[in-house]
Amino acid sequence: MHFLRAIMPFRYLAWLLSGLGFVASLLLFWLYPLIGTTPLLVLGGLTLLGTLDFVQKKQAIRRNYPILAHFRFLFESIRPEIRQYFLESDTEEIPFSRAQRNLVYQRAKNVVDKRAYGTLANVYGDDYEWINHSIHTKHIKDTDFRVMIGEGQCAKPYSLSLYNISAMSYGSLSANAILALNKGAKLGNFAHDTGEGSISRYHREPGGDLIWEIGSGYFGCRHDDGSFSAERFIEGATSPQVKMIEIKLSQGAKPGHGGILPAAKVTPEIAEARGVPVGVDCVSPSSHSAFSTPIELMAFIAQLRLLSGGKPVGIKLCIGHPWEFFAICKAMIKTNITPDYIVIDGAEGGTAAAPAEFTDHLGTPMHEGLVLAHNTLVGLGLRDRVKLGAAGKIISGFDIARTLALGADWCNSGRGFMFALGCLMAKTCHTGRCPTGVATQSWLRQRALDPEDKGNRVYYFHHNTLKALGEIAGAAGLTHPNQLRPHHIVRRVSVNEVALVSALVPYLQPGELLQHCPQHRVYQLFWKMSQAESFDPVITPAEVKKTVPAVD
Fold first, then answer.
1. Cβ pair 163, 462 in contact under 8 A
2. pLDDT band at 544 (very low <50, low <70, confident <90, very high)
3. Who has the most CB within 10 Å: 183, 187, 285, 522?
4. Which residues are in coiled coils (predicted)?
């Protein structure tokens, strides 16, 4: 036995048996050709495969385990599906749990979304959150919650829903997905952000309200050299369908990272929408060329507001260096020009494909970024002039309620509306092989997504989620979700201790930053480093520590 193992290890058994079987099938084929043909071909193929595995030098596992290694590759290729369908728990977030996805599917289908037998959440686990209810509840009949953007400084302010579709470009999503999203937006009277890929024919066809996102590539409003074109911007921005303009500084999925749409993917339709040549690499630089300082950014905002005919203009960013955001805010004070709104994109966002390091370790999560933006605007006395939106894993009524309580005026969602379209979270968005036709340019794959049916599901998901938000606000004794504040949210910080978010997160008083630097370490360290004239820090953090006393 030991001798046999020495000359023919067990891991070669499949190869050995296929070889012996091949020899036996030769004899069978010689005696009975009709019966022996199939075994001969199958066993001959396996024998050849094992031989090729044994002699090749690129993969050690194939060389050590001829034939058997391919079973490993097979199971590895379907590991995500095995895990998702058979092993994943209902509460495990990767990045969305089965329970979260099922909630979206139920609301999108407009079927019962109730749950029996109690919560699946661990209510005694760290970071568990809830809203305290009131004995004196309210009944909110109208759940079409809205916020006015640009009122007082725009000729054409816009009444925006509290829940809207985040920026997702045509090119990243399929034509049928864009059609369905925009149809749902039109049915529900909420907004659909175009993403930086600009306005395509599939955005225009249903006629739903659009937020036109302007990225660093200036797609849809660019000269041939990639610089900003005021003339082309006017053509798109003055369309009645476009309600707001959004300057994208960065995004949660890959902040600080540009992008390239390879030439092979630049189809005539994508080229038409973006204003680029067909079959040429489409480049999104990592930074803008229309401005290079915070003051220039304010001037660009004012220019777009004027060129658009007085429509609200805002910025979207994932918070990075605090001094850079502070510099933008100081530029608002110095120029007396403010964006009509700011969208805080959290690092937990991610409809776009991105390098793993950017996905996992770059950018500020939405909650921290939102609180910083809200606090700074309040401290400068600008909060009434600048509305705040937020995006980052917001798919339920409670997600919206918590985000509004932290300081947002409205919320956006990308993946939530993708689930409403039928997304299975297969995580193949960047491969073009989306199984449900949402994130692909393959005609054969996207034909499975019916824009009429899925458009209705987008509408129902939005409608039923806002209905749930209204029920939450009413249960808390409020008459509108915009009355939610940090003291309404309770967070468990240990097994035996809970605290109001208002006690955990320090909030500034109106105008406080105009009077003195708050006793908060972020402001103590970075406020003095910021300047309206540049995004660069005035002095280094090490120099700041020498001049600023430590604050607990």
1. yes
2. low
3. 183
4. none
What's the whole-number mean pLDDT along residues 399-414? 97
Q: How does DSSP classify residue 413?
A: E
Compute the distance between CA of residue 237 and CA of residue 252 in angstroms, rounded to an integer: 25
Name residue 292's amino acid: S
% residues pLDDT > 90 (the chain): 58
The Cα–Cα gap between 189 and 414 comes to 17
Print burial letters for 21-36: b (CB count within 10 Å at least 16), e (below 16).
Answer: bbeebeeebeeeeeeb
pLDDT band with cut points at 50, 70 and 90 for residue 40: confident
Give φ, ψ of 210 to 5 degrees: -120, 145
Written as six digits, the tokens of 162 are 């509290």
**Residue that has been written with the tokens 């990308």 in this structure:** 414
Reference 66, options 12, 104, 135; nearest CA is 12
Q: At residue 439, what is the residue type?
A: A
Reading the block at residue 384, the tokens are 């009434």
Give the C-alpha separation, 275 to 21, whole Å: 62
Q: pTM higher than 0.70 for the full model?
A: yes
**Cβ-count burial of 42 within 10 angstroms (0-12 exposed, 13-18 middle, 19+ buried)?**
middle
User: Residues 159-188: pLDDT tens digits?
Assistant: 999 999 999 999 889 999 999 999 999 999
Residue 269 and residue 175 in contact, taking contact as beta carbons nearer than 8 Å: yes
Write the single-letter amino acid at 174.
S
pLDDT score at 491: 93
